Amino acid sequence: xxxxxxxxxxxxxxxxxxxxxxxxxxxxxxxxxxxxxxxxxxxxxxxxxxxxxxxxxxxxxxxxxxxxxxxxxxxxxxxxxxxxxxxxxxxxxxxxxxxxxxxxxxxxxxxxxxxxxxxxxxxxxxxxxxxxxxxxxxxxxxxxxxxxxxxxxxxxxxxx
Amino acid sequence: xxxxxxxxxxxxxxxxxxxxxxxxxxxxxxxxxxxxxxxxxxxxxxxxxxxxxxxxxxxxxxxxxxxxxxxxxxxxxxxxxxxxxxxxxxxxxxxxxxxxxxxxxxxxxxxxxxxxxxxxxxxxx
Lengths: 160, 125
Known about the structure:
heterodimer; A: 160 residues; alpha+beta; five-stranded antiparallel sheet; three-stranded antiparallel sheet; 8 strands; B: 125 residues; 51% helix
């Protein structure tokens, strides 16, 4: 009888130890998943605005010539208008915010295209431009965070 | 012949496995914490670099005029430097180093986060 009790106690201890092992394993996995989700959230939060600012800065530098960078409108949307001449033809690149996203539209000047004809680049909560005295301010927001950058235009003729 | 119980051996083996698992779990948790810290540091560095870049652009646009730069940045201008808050609990300081050169430093609770030196060039000079 006593042997049976001792045997049962031993088995119970084994079971308890195994349970502790399983619970610890689940806790570590859950903690790891939580950390991964938080880190992904931080990276996702940064991705949109930083990519948008880098993209716009590169585009503006590419078109930084006389009259190349102006502010305008495309189908009711405020847009950054970048002009260039290719083989004698005038082309325009519109960069604008539409339907909670950053859009780009490259077309011939005066083509009459609409905002929905552009290509959606990434998701953004808001985007605005301000151009005064040759200084372009780009303000974008995503996930409650507001990001602003300034770009000094070297060429003359940049105006709203 | 007495049949010896194997339960103590099993218990020892499980305890050893649990010990090894606890050691590995500790290492993993430490890595998770480090990864999160790195992500937050990266975010703060990105914000600091963006703020410094904006200040540098304003400096170049004004041709090295401290007061005008302060006006564009909505910052407080001193005798030879200006300061403004940026990002979270961060401070941007632009110091006129003479010769249209400015030193821009972004600091926060962790100390100096980002620094750069910029020169306003006019007509190639």
